[in-house]
Amino acid sequence: MDNRSKYSFKAFSETDDYQKVNADIVRHWVSSMLTERSKQIGSLLDIATGMGTMVQLFLNQLPGQKPTVICLDQDESSLVQTTDRLKSLSFDVKHLHTSVEDLELPDESVDVAIWGNAIHYLQAEGQERALTAIRRVLKKRGWLFFNTAFYAEARPPETLVFYRAQVRKAVSHLNSLGIQRDRAQKRPAASNFPPASHYETLLTKIGFSVNEMRQVAARLHQPAWEHLSSFRQYAAGALHGYVPEVAADAMREAVAPAIEKHGQRDENNAPYVLRNWLAVSARRENLSSGVTSM
Q1: Which of 262, 17, 274 is nearest to 164 (CA)?
Q2: How far is CA 213 from the centre of its chain?
Q3: What is the 3-state secondary structure (H, E, C) of 89-104?
Q4: What local confidence, expressed as pLDDT, does residue 234 receive?
Q5: pLDDT at 112 over 60
Q6: How far, in Å, CA of 154 to CA of 195, rounded?
Q7: 147: which residues sit within 8 A by CB, 6+ positions away?
Q8: Sign of the CA dihedral 15, 21, 22, 23?
Q9: Quick one: DSSP state of residue 47?
């Protein structure tokens, strides 16, 4: 494992636990959308496409439909791989190597936009710019779907004992190595995640009606937690004041004892800890006719 993959989100996104919760979320999104709107989807924008996990899950729920797929990402190598994979499945695919805030597509040209597991990377101002850009390119009553596992309510109260044990174990390990925390370093702003209500307020302000805000509890087993804990942004938030790579290694090593002691047990007696995903569906409203939150 090279350092780039070791400290990235990619490994976590490939775990069975991650795939399962996102498949459940996407299945619910598509079912809700088709209940209200049965016509063919002509164009689908996949924001922060990464390795294409979310868009492929979404397309799997649309048998017989072949929308034009527009993949957007700032990582050009992932973008090329994903678009090539979708083209091999006979989809008409375009790709945009840009940020969502700088989205350049014609006004009202997209039926559906999905933004999987990435909105939390942006601070509030960036989220507002991004959602405004998405609204502009969506057709009237077009759909926006996004989700995140990084928001204020992501940690069920009963799981806090696991997080505290993990942090204590990680700090103890770093102390044993003589690695001290820089106490002058403040907690990264990116690790202060907003509550679910923040997204409802923001969407309504920009001109969306919120169709549903759904909280989904996902079982994360040890492999998923080890990959998530190796994610640099996650580790920097949990152990601010340490070098991110060092913090990530310590957090990953602390998963096994913490989950063994404080995790619940599944039907195979494997320990897991729940984490909540926020799944949001919204529709573009016509601002001139007034905006209401449903």
Answers
A1: 262
A2: 15
A3: CCCCEEEEECCHHHCC
A4: 83
A5: yes
A6: 9
A7: 22, 25, 116, 117, 277, 278, 279, 280
A8: positive
A9: E
What does DSSP assign to residue 251?
H
Q: Dihedrals φ, ψ of 160, to 5°?
A: -60, -30
Asked if 67 and 90 count as a contact pair (C-beta separation under 8 A), the reply is: no
pLDDT at 17: 97
What 3-state DSSP class applies to 180?
coil
H helix or E strand, kind and range, residue 124 = helix 124-137
Q: Which of 8, 5, 12 is nearest to 275 (CA)?
A: 12
pLDDT for 182-237, tens place per residue?
877 776 655 678 999 999 999 999 999 999 999 999 999 999 999 999 887 788 88
pTM of the model as a whole: 0.91
Amino acid, single-letter form, for residue 154 = A
pLDDT tens digits, one per residue of 253-293: 999 999 999 999 999 999 999 999 999 999 999 765 444 33
Size of the chain, expressed as the number of residues it contains:
294
Backbone angles phi and psi of 201, in degrees to 5: -65, -45
The continuous run of DSSP H or E covering 227 comes out as helix 222-229
> Given this model, what pLDDT does residue 233 score?
77
DSSP state of 194: P
Alpha helices in the chain (DSSP H): 3-6, 10-13, 16-36, 53-60, 76-88, 124-137, 160-176, 196-206, 222-229, 232-238, 244-253, 255-262
* Residues forming beta bridges with residue 255, ordered by sequence position: none
Q: Which two tokens stand for residue 115?
A: 């933004």
pLDDT tens digits for 13-59? 889 999 999 999 999 999 999 887 656 899 999 999 998 999 999 99
Topology classification of domain 3-289: Rossmann fold (3.40.50)
